[in-house]
Design goal:
Elements lengths: L4 H4 L2 E4 L6 H31 L6 H27 L6 E3 H34 L4 H4 L2 H27 L8 E2 L6 H5 L7 H35 L3 H29 L5 H26 L1 H13 L1
Parallel strand pairs: 1-3
Antiparallel strand pairs: 1-2
Helix pairs in contact: 2-3, 2-10, 3-4, 3-10, 4-6, 4-8, 4-9, 6-8, 8-9, 9-10
């Protein structure tokens, strides 16, 4: 009885987005197009921020990192989902499944902390404008980004360790298009109630802490904007509105999937698609359409072409 888990279950089978072959083939082109737009849109923001010296400031440096994380998060699940639309056997190896769990929590955890960092940046810029350049200097900005990546990595490793050695002895069908811990836990042949509480607590501490910090930051910002209502404050409010929209788009689906007590498979699949496909697609569009400096940088780039 000293066999490894991999010798008991070597692969998992996805049921995918739906069971209808006709609908799967219909979804192939739209999702392929959406993923192409995610890759182009997010990497374009990264490249634009690097190449345009007008965007060499903490806010755009953080935005470039957000775009890169969104690109990575979507790339963990979306290419596999797209190729599975044309496959009968939607299988993934045990190692591949564990890698998805690690990477999804790595990038999602990193994005949570990065959104807090972006909120802090806006708080300093709006509530303490005279001290902005000294507080958000280049070195501190880099360290804040590094901390977000390290936090995401530690969170991903913690989640992986908790599920890696569990006895998966069948069934091996996952009713989704990627490996997510709540669904994988259903396939474990032992009582996982206590372990489930530990996993949710670890994720909950990170998620709720980040969410509270975001609420505090944006509350201070909105109060400051209300007190100092002028053209500069209106511009600051417009920038913050973009940030708040992104926070809602990211946290909304995550809260419903992981904290909502009622599990409805169709709703969970829709929300999973939302935060792995739709949110990474919308983030660069939101910042691009609402930010004058980015629009000017795009116009300048197009004029030089």
């Amino acid at each position: 009885m000293e066999e490894t888990n991999q010798s008991v279950v070597t692969e998992f089978i996805f049921q995918g987005l739906c069971t209808s072959r006709e609908l799967q083939m219909f979804l192939l082109l739209p999702f392929s197009t959406l993923y192409l737009m995610i890759v182009v849109g997010n990497l374009f923001v990264v490249i634009l921020t690097i190449t345009d010296h007008h965007l060499h400031s903490p806010m755009y440096y953080l935005l470039a990192n957000l775009s890169f994380i969104d690109f990575c998060l979507s790339s963990v699940t979306t290419p596999k989902m797209i190729t599975d639309l044309i496959k009968e056997n939607k299988s993934i190896s045990f190692g591949g499944c564990m890698s998805q769990i690690l990477c999804v929590h790595f990038f999602a955890g990193g994005e949570m902390v990065l959104l807090v960092t972006m909120a802090y940046d806006r708080y300093v810029a709006i509530c303490r404008p005279l001290h902005y350049t000294s507080i958000m200097d280049r070195q501190k900005c880099i360290w804040l980004v590094v901390i977000s990546w390290i936090t995401g990595f530690v969170h991903g490793i913690n989640q992986l360790i908790l599920v890696l050695e569990l006895p998966f002895c069948g069934p091996r069908v996952i009713d989704s298009f990627f490996c997510d811990i709540p669904l994988v836990m259903k396939l474990v042949c032992m009582n996982t109630d206590i372990l489930g509480i530990i996993i949710n607590a670890e994720s909950g501490v990170l998620g709720i802490t980040c969410f509270i910090l975001l609420l505090i930051s944006y509350t201070y910002i909105l109060l400051t904007v209300q007190i100092h209502s002028n053209d500069g404050s209106s511009k600051a409010l417009s920038t913050c509105t973009s940030h708040i929209i992104v926070v809602v788009l990211f946290y909304g689906p995550v809260i419903f999937i992981y904290l909502w007590p009622v599990n409805i498979t169709l709703v969970d699949k829709f929300l999973s698609v939302f935060y792995t496909v739709i949110t990474p697609l919308l983030n660069p569009a939101i910042y691009t359409l609402r930010n004058r400096n980015i629009k000017n940088a795009i116009k300048k780039l197009l004029n030089h072409m």
